[in-house]
Amino acid sequence: MFQEASLFPHLSVQDNLRYGLKRAPRLRTSGPTIAFDDVVELLGIGRLFDRPPSLLSGGERQRVAIGRALLSQPRLLLMDEPLSALDRASKDDILPYLERLHDALALPVLYVSHDLAEVERLADTLVLMAEGQVQTVGPLATVLADPRLPLAGQPQAAVVLEGNIEAYDSTYDLSSVAVDDITLLVPGALGAPGEKRRVRVLATDVSLAHEPPSRTSILNSFPARVISHEPGQDHGVTVLLGLGEDGTGARILARISRKSWDLLALAPGDRVVASLKSVALTHGRAGLTLTRSPSPA
């Protein structure tokens, strides 16, 4: 899969898909076969069957191209910046379908991208490269939460936490999402209890204190331990925290000023209270938007 869909212009959508079937190995000695109807349903392209590529939107063309690639029965799918030629609206349209593929197919995917928002939604393991050299390899959450890496120094540095939906409060339109031993309140009806979701927490949306806040509008405050810190090039300090009384829970980042760091007199191992001013959904199923509105703060 490349940046351009490269569909055959003289073939309909259905015939482009069937070309992928023709390219499939005749004998599969191992692994499941990806069925034509399953691909069509997962990518939502059945209504496009009779159209030529010229009458498709950019997102539709990419979905058909992904379907054609899947129907060739690959053992590994390489996707080289498949959304880079699309505008933001088209990306938002196609990402839920990629999430559905991620959830439904037991197929390794090597996804190349410069867009961290795509990576946060789709990746399980992250290989971080710079100037052709591998800087680190590890689980997505671990790499994003490493304050020594350049991702943590970016203005939009964030961590991704994976949890399960526990309940939905229709009175306040809030879903409870369990992440390790804590429960996050996230705006919106995110799905049925037990379903997995990823939530994104910006480092700049995490504040620290020695005592729990009282009479505050912030809904998500948890005990945590300082694990390490990394001074930035400006006035900021990036702090790595482990949630929970003993700090063994999920890792998050906090971006605070150097003055705040000094005033709090923090050091590794210190107990703090981390208040999350905003929590957004970053991984959902088809039909959900890219992010939810921030938590009330």
Automatic annotation (TrEMBL):
EC numbers, comma separated: 3.6.3.29
Keywords, sorted A to Z: ATP-binding, Cell inner membrane, Cell membrane, Hydrolase, Membrane, Molybdenum, Nucleotide-binding, Translocase
Enzyme class: hydrolase
Any GO molecular function: ATP binding
The UniProt record lists the keyword Ribosomal protein: no
Transmembrane portions of the chain: none
Domain ABC transporter: 2-156
InterPro entries: ABC_transporter-like_ATP-bd (IPR003439), ABC_transporter-like_CS (IPR017871), Mo/tungstate-bd_C_term_dom (IPR008995), ModC_ABC_ATP-bd (IPR011868), Molybdenum_import_ModC (IPR050334), Mop_domain (IPR004606), P-loop_NTPase (IPR027417), Transp-assoc_OB_typ1 (IPR005116)
Entry keyword Acetylation: no
Domain Mop per the UniProt entry, residue ranges: 215-285
GO CC annotation: membrane
Protein name, as recorded: Molybdenum import ATP-binding protein modC
Native source organism of the sequence: Pararhodospirillum photometricum DSM 122
Name of the gene: modC
